[in-house]
Design goal:
With 205 residues, the chain is of the alpha+beta class. It is built from 8 helices and 4 strands; from the N terminus they run βαβαββαααααα. The chain has a 4-stranded mixed beta sheet, with helices on one face. The structure holds glutathione. Glutathione binds next to helix 3.
Length: 205
């Protein structure tokens, strides 16, 4: 059986739990929350020297980290990856942008506001630029979603599963304002209505 190391409070980990749930993939779950020490333990660092989750471990010892690489691996030949090469690349375009721009602003601001070990960063010179850049990124999604129901077109793809977690908690955890972005709010509901959705706090029993 697969083992998934994931952080219960993290959007990057939520992405993987969400895809696994939708695909019916069974796994042993190891909760690596901040403070657990798991990501700093030598056993874990031998699997991922970067010391981050999510991380998937196969029974034969192979490991895969980086949430979006995990999504791409398990998403192959499922309804979440379009068969057309150009459409696949549009999915990847959103996923690379998520790590480079969206996660780097929307998720980082939420992390600073919610994790006690980041308390020292709760200063306006840190938080305000993250707010401005994060709002711009959320507006970019809203613009696309005014044109298409999902980020890469008419069908739900890995791009939506990738961008859902930190967008869904942008207001509650990150202090962002989605009130002027109705297309983005409608998309959140659309993703939540796709079969076998799970929320951030859902963990396998
Ligand atoms: N780019 C990575 C980011 C992973 C990441 O930053 N994980 C954080 C939680 S969101 C983590 O594992 N932190 C544990 C630590 O720093 O000890 C991904 O998408 O998987």
């Amino acid at each position: 059986m697969l083992t998934l190391y994931s952080m219960p409070s993290s959007g990057n980990s939520h992405k993987v739990r969400l895809l696994f749930h939708k695909l019916g993939i069974e796994y042993r779950h190891i909760a690596a929350e901040y403070g657990s020490g798991i990501t700093r333990h030598p056993d874990f660092l031998s699997k991922n020297p970067h010391g981050r989750v999510p991380l998937v471990e196969w029974e034969d010892g192979r490991v895969l980290s980086e949430s979006n690489a995990i999504l791409c691996h398990f998403g192959e030949r499922t309804r979440f990856v379009p068969p057309d090469p150009f459409q696949r690349s549009k999915v990847l375009e959103w996923m690379f942008w998520e790590q480079n721009s969206h996660e780097a602003t929307v998720a980082v601001r939420a992390a600073i506001l919610n994790y006690s070990h980041r308390e020292a960063e709760r200063r306006s010179e840190v938080l305000d630029p993250l707010f401005d850049a994060g709002q711009r990124n959320l507006r970019r999604m809203n613009l696309q979603l005014e044109a298409t129901p999902f980020l890469a077109g008419d069908q739900i793809t890995l791009a939506d599963l990738c961008l859902y977690p930190y967008t869904a908690t942008a207001e509650s955890r990150g202090g962002f304002d989605l009130s002027e972005m109705p297309a983005l709010s409608a998309w959140l509901s659309r993703v939540e209505n796709d079969p076998d959705h799970i929320t951030l706090d859902w963990l396998p029993s």
